[in-house]
Specification:
Elements: H1 6-19, E1 22-27, E2 34-41, E3 46-57, E4 62-75, E5 86-88, E6 96-99, E7 108-112, E8 124-130, E9 135-138, H2 140-145, E10 154-156, E11 161-168, E12 172-181, E13 185-196, E14 202-211, E15 214-223, H3 224-233
Parallel strand pairs: 1-5
Antiparallel strand pairs: 1-2, 2-3, 3-4, 6-7, 7-8, 8-9, 10-11, 11-12, 12-13, 13-14, 14-15
Length: 234
């Protein structure tokens, strides 16, 4: 069989790539202030790839800023079909997270950047709003925090603290809380380590707390069934 000329093969590849339709994915319920318009080349309802994310101010429907993600991941609405130009996202998805991550009174945004977290969990690029620049700027420290643990960190506005979770296998879990002070970065203020025995009947809980600039540690043992039941109740 005669070989197809290289030029023809290249032309065929370009045509097939150009034919892949772009879909605009809308996210309208993640923020009280912003809507998001995500443009991506979707081949299936589970999108995983490069995307452009445009934030729009809800009040005036005004474009605010555009971001890019090399590894955006989102599950589209079940009604979406390949070739559709518009799509919503499925319930319980968090491709974008809005919150005041640095406790300065301004809403910030975290954008999914793949599954680089611990145990292949979700990871995010974090952008904080800079009032002087009137723009969102990348924050390396918070991005690292949102990319090296079990998913996105949690915020406590009242205490101005951020909490992350870690694990090793089935039986070791850690919850670490950091205080965030402007210009001083993150300071670990508390950690709770839960380590179940091999048989699973008992759990050792090591609690560390920052007191007067020093970490104070206490260790207690519990019956695993009672401990986890009490924990779930709270």
């Amino acid at each position: 069989m005669p070989m197809k000329p290289i030029a023809c093969l290249m032309a065929s590849f370009v045509l097939s790539s150009a034919a892949m339709a772009q879909t605009v994915i809308t996210v309208n319920n993640a923020s009280a202030r912003y809507n998001a318009k995500i443009t991506a080349k979707c081949e299936s309802a589970h999108f995983h790839g490069e995307a452009k994310i445009q934030l729009l101010e809800k009040e005036r429907n005004r474009a605010v800023q555009t971001f890019s993600s090399k590894d955006f991941i989102v599950q589209l609405d079940s009604n979406w079909k390949e070739g559709d130009k518009k799509a919503g996202i499925a319930d319980n998805q968090q491709p974008l997270v809005f919150d005041d991550f640095n406790f300065d009174g301004e809403e910030d945004v975290a954008i999914r950047n793949g599954n680089n977290g611990s145990y292949g969990g979700p990871s995010y690029d974090v952008y904080v709003y800079n009032t002087a620049k009137k723009a969102f700027v990348a924050d390396k420290m918070l991005t690292r925090l949102a990319s090296e643990n079990l998913g996105m960190f949690e915020t406590d506005r009242f205490r101005k603290q951020l909490t992350v979770h870690q694990k090793s296998g089935c039986c070791w879990h850690s919850t670490i809380t950091y205080g965030l002070q402007p210009g001083r970065g993150l300071t670990k203020v508390a950690e709770v380590v839960e380590e179940a025995d091999a048989g699973g009947d008992m759990v050792t809980v090591t609690t560390s707390q920052l007191v007067n600039g020093k970490m104070k540690k206490s260790v207690q043992r519990y019956k695993a069934q009672e401990y986890y039941k009490e924990k779930e109740a709270h």
